[in-house]
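Please, structure for the following, as tokens.
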Amino acid sequence: VCGGGHVAASVVRLAKLLGLPVLAMEDRTEYAQDLRDAGADTVFCLPFAQALEQVPGGAETYFVVVTRAHAFDVACLEQILQKPAAYVGMMGSRGRAAPVSYTHLRAHEQRQMCIRDRVEAVQAPIGLAIGAKTAEEIALSILAQIVEVKNARPQTEGFAPALLAAMEQAAQNGQPAVLATIIARHGSTPREVGSKMLLLPDGTTVGSVGGGIMEYRT
């Protein structure tokens, strides 16, 4: 999540309710703290371009660009369009997004011939068209679109960054840990095959295999 305003904080809160790992970034200290308070797993308080240099992206990465100004959208997209991603969405109309994207396209078309497809795939305006008015409603439209994209495609990466980080930390500390993985599902379930959850000795968990009684039994 790029941005630290009301919409960004609402996106973080709703994403965490859905059990998604969230990395957020904002260049203003007080707004970065709002993202932490909203529940983001990781928050970078840095200029957006600098923060995004630390985000590798991936086939299961969803970028939400909801900064406070067009110039910051430019800085974010210039970085994001060079990274692998399942989804890229930004506030504003397609007309507002296109100049940002095509400026980047002209700058990189010699060495990144596939960038045009990435530009066309940017969701702008971000979110499903549900007539959202408030920050919370806009966040709902964004997460609904992300869930729609996520559930329409096969999962191609098994380990979320937060899960990998927790596994590495446990190994460094000499902690035993158990990795639970969904290998099959029947009927309506909240998690897909391949979803993982790491269980640590103190009872804490990272990731999710479904929530509620399922996670308790696991």
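Residues 10 and 136 are 6 Å apart (CA to CA). Strands lie at 23-25, 42-44, 62-65, 87-90, 178-181, 196-199, 205-207.
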